[in-house]
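Tokens in:
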């Protein structure tokens, strides 16, 4: 509140579990409320401890890196990449890609490529084509089970874990 916020929406942070068909908690909050689902009396196990971050929280952390300093959305194309999903046509099986791609040219000239593997069970391999003169300088990623966003310098990865989110930052070689 001291920095200008006039309200905080607690529900968005900690909404609590409810029934899901996939055996998950169904918590739409950013952080775990640490409670047990009251509408699932037979379910064993409760949410992780209060404050444990869920996937949307970590993904929001990744996106703050992408959107840093403004920028321009660029066109992207995905092809192949697994079974089902959206984002393109797999030339070998005729099914859509499960990897979605988004790119932004930030105000400082850095390209930020966001890759989301929407397949809940299989890692996906991609081939990233970038404009001439650009090279990957840093990759940020998160996958289920991680407690924080990981970061590494150097070449961009080509394989992405199930249900993972990755941001690849590229700069002009120089």
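Residues out:
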């Amino acid at each position: 509140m001291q920095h200008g916020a006039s309200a905080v929406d607690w529900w968005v942070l900690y909404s609590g579990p409810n029934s899901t068909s996939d055996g998950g908690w169904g918590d739409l909050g950013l952080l775990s409320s640490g409670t047990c689902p009251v509408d699932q009396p037979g379910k064993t196990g409760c949410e992780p401890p209060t404050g444990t971050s869920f996937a949307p929280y970590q993904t929001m952390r990744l996106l703050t890196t992408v959107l840093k300093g403004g920028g321009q959305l660029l066109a992207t194309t995905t092809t192949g990449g697994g079974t089902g999903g959206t984002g393109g046509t797999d030339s070998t099986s005729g099914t859509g890609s499960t990897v979605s791609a988004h790119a932004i040219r930030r105000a400082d000239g850095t390209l930020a490529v966001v890759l989301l593997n929407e397949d809940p069970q299989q890692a996906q391999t991609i081939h990233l084509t970038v404009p001439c003169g650009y090279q990957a300088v840093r990759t940020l990623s998160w996958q289920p089970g991680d407690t924080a966003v990981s970061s590494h310098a150097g070449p961009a990865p080509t394989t992405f874990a199930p249900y993972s989110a990755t941001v690849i930052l590229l700069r002009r070689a120089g």
